[in-house]
Design brief:
This protein is an alpha+beta fold and about 475 residues long. The protein is built from 10 helices and 12 strands. The longest helix has about 70 residues. The two termini are about 65 Å apart. The model has no long low-confidence stretch (mean pLDDT about 90). The structure holds adenosine-5'-diphosphate (ADP).
Length: about 475
Amino acid sequence: MFLRKLHDLKNSLLFRLTILYAVAFTVLAAIGFLIFYYRIYAVTMERLDFELLEKTGRFTALMKDAGLEGVRPAIADEAASEDPQEDFYRLSNFKGDVLFSTDMSFWGSIDQQSQLQKMQNDGVTDLIQTIKFAERDDKARTVTSIIGPDSVLQIGESLEEVDEYLDIFLQLFSILIVSLILASTIIGWLLARRATIDMQEVTETAEEISKGAYDRRVQIKARYREIERLGATFNRMLDRIQSLLNSMKEINDNIAHDLRSPLARIRGIAEMSLLKEKSVDAYKEMAVNTIEECDSLIGMINTMLDITEAEAGVNGVETEKFELVELLREACELFRPIAEAKKIHLQTDLPESLTVTSDRKKMQRIVTNILENAIKYTPADGAVTVSAAAQNGELRIEFADTGTGISANDLPHIFERFYRCDRSRSQGGVGLGLSLVKAYTESINGTVHVESALDQGSRFALVFES
Ligand code: ADP
């Protein structure tokens, strides 16, 4: 149980982000401090070296002016002002005979000959070194300078003070780094929690949905753009799923209500034929009726499938470049005989040419469905006008008729599957035409608009971005 929790924690984003923040923060702070520490160390040593060289430089100048006899007491004076445990002064000749020295019992011996050898090899008159003396724990910074023709002056200064000073820094750094690790872990945890809290909300919503709460949506608080986008995309996906579920439910209802009656009719025809003795002609008629009913059933089922596919976005859109004016004229010619038979004046108001890139087959079905309705619901001596224009980046196709019109009560429902206005029931049709028009138009990125006034006529408009 505990191990499982530990494993979960190790794999959680919150935990990993927190550790990442803490490590990054601490490493950066440590690098910053190390640079700072070595800079301070370098400056301190530079200052020390400068002081030591400045002293030997002074004695070199004095040696030139006053000779050994003048330098020796000057060195003794200088040495007297210092603590022999902290600083030493040692004047000798090249052979190593000591001409003056402070108490070296605090320090131990110095290998002067090898230092002189090194200076000779390097061709320098001053040699600065950090030396660890046998007699003491601390190190010392020493300068060995040739201050005269046969005189070597060695000055040493204990680094104890410098070490103490740098030790304080190290202690400070240790305290600082521990506090930084703590602070960065807390800050990291807070930041990571803020980032993941929204993700948790998405997860919780997904969990609730998986239990059946399909109407739940992620609250978009816009704290982080990425998570906001994730939430918005998730909500869009949910909307889509819900609309598909609704349309599936609608189809189920449709099958229950609207497909049942034609099937009942077919059954009725067959039953009637069985009950009574009939002539061959009567049986033939029954067969014809059955075929007609079946055809209309197949047509309905196919249209329903087409609508569902277009709404679900399956089968895609096949775009091609084509002449829209030609397509509209062809559709008008197709319906002209019916219009003429009904004494309806079918007219067009079209430009010379309108080339569009869209799904030609879908456009054909949209246009024929609207045109068919316009002629169907317009009484004799009426008029139907088809017009199209591209303006302000918008392509608009309009179908205006002087027909029965649609009441304000019916208008919001006419695009629903199987919806038929009461006044149209005398006309043939199943109420799927406008549902198909809407689904197809939206699948090719267009919108359908309708204006209508009862007994005056209707105007259907298709609008596309051009
Ligand atoms: P159908 O025409 O098969 O009944 P539709 O889906 O094409 O089904 O149309 C739905 C309803 O909208 C029709 O029953 C009709 O009442 C109304 N309608 C559609 N177009 C027109 C129109 N141009 N004029 C008047 N009513 C219309």
